[in-house]
Amino acid sequence: MLKFFRQIRKHLVEQNKVRKYILYAVGETLLVVIGILIALQVNNWNENRKLEKVSDQTLQSLEEEINEARSNLKEIIAFNERISELSRDFLSGELPMDSLEKDPSQIFLLTTYASSTLNFAITEQELSSERTILGRQRLNEKLRISLQDYLRMGDLVDLLSNFWNNEVLPYFIEKKMMVVYNRFLKDEPINIEDIQQIINEDKFVNLVATTNSMNYQFLFFLKKLDKDLEEALVLIREEEND
């Protein structure tokens, strides 16, 4: 092809057809420019196709990660709701003694809580990258909000953990309840007499009340995180169906 063009140029020069030569040279330059632009366009199209493929894979991975997180959240929420309901009944005097006689281990649930470390590795990776999931702004924003919820939830877990270690545990040690508490952890039988000394003690009631208050806030963030993750899943499925 280049040899063909050179022959044409030589022929025009030899015939002293300067005007035609200039027009031809301009035309040849335009052809080269057009060829380069077409090559760039094809290259961009190929790159975009690769990015779309990566993005689709990312969306699938995000969906799996969020579904797993929500599955863990539902278990944590259910357990903490049970604790919250039990402690409300205890504090209001509506926890019947026969219920405690049947299951004295309930008394230790009143000062505990459930938490879990959730995996958001893919979410964090995508939000920290420049691609930001190929510009999906609504999804990016919802994922950022979800991570903020998770961080706030972590702060409350730290508060609950510190309270249990600094207040509840020393109380059980002081009351010589650790042997009984260990039986509770191992799901071994506990007699009502083993926990009778602390049931009506003011300090224990105060510990339950404090735990209940903190657990109420914890449940709020657990449910908010679950709701935000649910909304993120809706956005992911909308993107997958486009």
Please render the helix and strand layout as text.
Blueprint: H1 2-14, H2 18-91, H3 97-102, H4 106-109, H5 121-128, H6 132-135, H7 137-174, H8 178-185, H9 192-199, H10 202-241
Helix pairs in contact: 1-2, 2-5, 2-10, 7-10
Coiled coil: 52-79
Protein name: DUF6090 family protein
InterPro entries: DUF6090 (IPR045749)
Principal-axis shape equals elongated
Counting helices, strands and paired strands, the structural category is mainly alpha
Assign a percent range to the helix content: over 70%
The number of helical segments is 10
Biggest pleated-sheet summary: none
Mean pLDDT: 80
The proportion of residues in beta strands is under 5%
Q: In total, how many domains does the architecture comprise?
A: 1
Low-confidence stretches: 48-54
Q: What's the end-to-end separation, in Å?
A: 44 Å
* Rounded Rg: 34 Å
Count of distinct strands = 0
